[in-house]
Design goal:
The chain has 132 residues and is an alpha+beta fold. The chain contains three helices and seven strands. The strands form two sheets. Strands 1, 2, 3, 4 and 5 form a five-stranded mixed beta sheet that branches. This is C-type lectin domain containing 5A.
Length: 132
């Protein structure tokens, strides 16, 4: 039995019960999927879904749901400093996965209109596509 995972899960549940109102989501670029550019570490084994403790594996990526209260800019800086970034949602499946993990909380994602008010784009400069 993987006790370290059970303990980590218990910590997450306790943090949720204590309750903070501002969260953010980011995914790890530390463990790139096979064939993806960048990264120096070994790719994630899709059959096992290996992620660091407290991270959640989904379709070749590791997601971290943080309980730290920060601004969007500070959240992004923290992610980048950790070798990650705020999540870019690429499919309805990924959106459903994130929704299922965040239903009653508020999280930051990698979407911004800081360059032009009301003109939303992802942090990789791609335009928001609501018809994905």
């Amino acid at each position: 039995m993987k006790w370290h995972l059970m303990i980590a899960g218990l910590i997450v549940v306790v943090m949720k019960l204590v309750g903070t109102s501002l969260f953010f989501v980011y995914f790890s670029e530390i463990f790139p999927t096979p064939g993806s550019p960048g990264g120096t570490n070994s790719p994630i084994d899709d059959s096992k879904g290996e992620c660091p403790i407290l991270w959640t594996f989904y379709k070749g990526r590791c997601y971290f749901f943080s309980a730290q209260q920060k601004t969007w800019a500070d959240s992004r800086k923290h992610c980048v400093d950790s070798g990650s970034d705020l999540v870019i949602i690429n499919s309805r499946e990924e959106l459903a996965f994130l929704f299922n993990h965040t239903q009653n909380e508020v999280y930051f994602i990698g979407l911004t209109d800081q360059d032009a008010e009301g003109k939303w784009k992802w942090i990789d400069n791609t335009a928001l596509n609501i018809n994905m």
